[in-house]
Amino acid sequence: METVFTTDLKPLLDAVSQQMELYIPKKSGEFYVFIKYDPASGQTIEFNNIRACTPLKDFLFPVRELAAVFPEAAEAEEVKPFAVFGLKDCDLRALDVLDKVFIEKDFRDPFYVKRRENMFIIASDCFEPAGSCFCNVMDGKPFADKGFDLNISQVEGGFIVEIGSEKGDEFVKKHSNIFKNLPENALDERKKNRTETKKQLAEQNAEMKFDCPVREIFDSSEDSEVYDIEAKTCVECQACTRICPTCHCFYLYDTKQKDYFSKMKMWDSCMRQAYAAVAGGANPNKILGDRIKHRLMHKFVYFLDRYGINMCVGCGRCVDAEAGEVDIREIMKKLYQELKDRDSKLTKVSK
């Protein structure tokens, strides 16, 4: 891909904000959140080392939105172009998941499509990954190589800007005055930085180096007691599904206004006790351990079977957000150990 160079991010972000609304990461405690960029405010521009805690789905799939109106039809509201800076590879892989759900052939959500078409993606490399990050276990990387309009990598003296789409190419050509040719050895430095970050991830997730696909670990766990044991520490806060960048369940409910009826769409969570309840009162997932198992089976087995891609991107947001002590990585390791123990016993019996 074509690359250019800039010594300062502000001219680049100012140029973007002149064309559309722009959201940038801001440090809040030990995490990052997205805020609207105002070039005249003197805001500090931060190059986030990891993904923001705000999931990208917030911009494309709002917590609450009007889906339909009767007797008049509800049209998708006008969406102005907007850009998000500081997205990571895990965010872009999560976007692939949402696209499968909301833009597949049999169903296209017009509200999602409008926002998706008007989004300008400015990705950036990760460095100093958080302790909760495990993207490498889920075949991810600390840098993006596709799915972005522009990708930014920090090196000595400035930033490498990689062009990843026609929209990105048009932007760079239109604002060629703020870019320069790459300094000598800049790409070598980027490669070194990326290799070092990959090494950090490999070291911190060394205990999750499995000798079988993650799918197999969960697919063999149907009768495992691990889910019920882990449920003892779960407080049913639903934070794991709310902050997950790929969880997309929603429910519809009707409201009566003065002279019309409206149907609202809101995020839902499979961790909610009444999620699977039916009108007759039956509930196949009334037990908390069963709900945890269903959530993880959906992520690692059901979605993969249907769409061919993993629904978990290893971003670690659920680990950071949990009010209880449920850790998806610990569950994975325990189930893997059960699988290895079971295989070992079978091997001894066969001998």
Give unreliable regions as ranges. none
Percent helix range? 25-40%
- What would you call the shape? globular
Q: How do the helices and strands follow one another from N- to C-terminus?
A: EHEEHEEHEEHEEEHHHHHEEHHH
Can you give the mean pLDDT? 93
Radius of gyration: 22 Å
User: In this structure, how is the largest beta sheet organized?
Assistant: 7 strands, mixed
The main sheet orders its strands as 1-10-9-8-5-2-3
DSSP strand content? 15-25%
**How many E strands?**
12
| Continuous helix count | 12
N-to-C terminal Cα separation, in Å? 55 Å
Number of domains: 2
Structural class determined from secondary elements: alpha/beta
Structural notes for this entry:
The protein has 351 residues and is of the alpha/beta class. The protein folds into two domains: 3-204, no CATH class; 214-350, no CATH class. It has helices spanning 9-19, 57-60, 89-102, 110-117, 166-174, 186-204, 214-219, 226-231, 239-243, 288-307, 317-321, 328-350, and strands at 3-6, 21-28, 31-36, 64-70, 82-87, 103-104, 107-108, 119-124, 150-155, 158-163, 250-256, 261-267. A seven-stranded mixed β-sheet has the order 1-10-9-8-5-2-3, sandwiched between helices. A hairpin with a 2-residue loop joins strand 6 (103-104) and strand 7. The termini are far apart.
